[in-house]
Enolase (Pollutimonas bauzanensis), 456 residues
Amino acid sequence: MTNARRISVVTAQEILDSRGYPTLEVSIGLGDGTVATVAVPAGASTGKHEARESRDGDPNRYEGKGVLHAIENVTGIIAPALTGMPADDQSVIDATLLALDGTEFKERLGANAILGASLACARAAAASHGVDLYRYLGGIEAHVLPVPMLNVLNGGKHAPDGSDIQEFKLIPVGAPTFREALRFGAETYHALRDVLHDAGAPTTVGDEGGFAPALTSNAAYLDVIMQAIERAGYRPGEQIAIGLDPAATTFCEQRFYHLQRDARTLSTGEMIDYWADWTRRYPIISLEDPLAEDDWDGFQRITSRLGKQVQIIGDDLFVTNRKFLQRGIDTGCCTGILIKPNQIGTISETLETARMAQRAGYACLVSHRSGETQDTSIADLAVALNCGQIKAGAPARGERVAKYNRLLHIERALGENAVFAGKTAFPQLRQSLAGGIHHERLSSDIFHGARSPSRP
Ligand SMILES: C=C(OP(=O)(O)O)C(=O)O
Ligand SMILES: [Mg+2]
């Protein structure tokens, strides 16, 4: 091997993420002149067992905290260790990063510093080989365009005035191609704005670009989505289904679930009944973190009760970590896993977790974070895994559409070889819609109290 692909320079700099908080960008240069730059995202509803990011000052606070220490870790510790190594030896690069850190949850260097370096290596190596990142990570088999899950109503920690439920997502399963799926979703997003606007409800948006009005109950948010799907001219359930991420850890205290919009407090059993009721009434095919991250018994119960009709995804429960995923597989918790590279730290670990899930028959949903950048690597990751699902927020706001636009480019580049995952990504779909969804409006006045005071 020549020196061409050896790492010659590693630098890092502070930038702002989509919430206006500091994050870092890492650049890696190779002997052949290739330079690749990546940016690292950050979550707000983070799982307790996620790899820790390095934040100056209080490590548990993300808001307003700098990443200067993480940058020093890249330039002072990571750079000297990686310099001279072949960038296309990803597993050795990542093993070196893990050894340098030496802690279970990446507390020493920070998962943000580690992911920046790991991902920048992969990008630099791909560019030096003259291939796209999805091809570099996924090889010759990578060809499946994922179904986008478009988060059009934001709540929870991403929009405190909205629903208790963090994410209401459109899943355009009935589209023939990725491009069409994105169009279905964008048109429905615009129709949703009209539904809200016509009712005098505010159309302000949350962290992921979805609208965040204050409606009268949590179910009312499903009603406005159903209206928007129909108003845009699509058939709910058949062309566009619905996915939820309640991020239930955020409203669980002392094993009880506190739904402020409904003025109700529920036990685990009652919370499961609540989701079961919703999945009967609405075309919901994906349910992520329906219970809190330490409610393993509850996850087992909801998976055996609803897992055949609805995909149950573990995000805070699994934190892209093989150890937690293995526990889930062994105990029958969930039917899928969220894949977020910054929850675990390196690209190698991310791929290992995803492949372990796929071997066990679990779905993989590749995901952005609520604090994002223009980096599009997760779009390539979804195609590399052929996993058929991605969530990257609303089809609006630059940092969200950057991922969808990247997928448009990949679809175009793959040409006739591109396969859109569509309904095949959701084996539960047939079962869930076979019995027919009987949509009834759960609340008679969904806009009460939602009107913006400045409007007539
Ligand atoms: C994307 C999510 O939010 P965050 O990045 O805030 O964890 C999520 O919970 O799936
Ligand atoms: Mg989540």
About this structure: The CA atoms of residues 155 and 166 lie 4 Å apart. The longest strand covers residues 7-16. Confidence is low (pLDDT under 50) at residues 451-456. The chain has 14 helices and 16 strands.
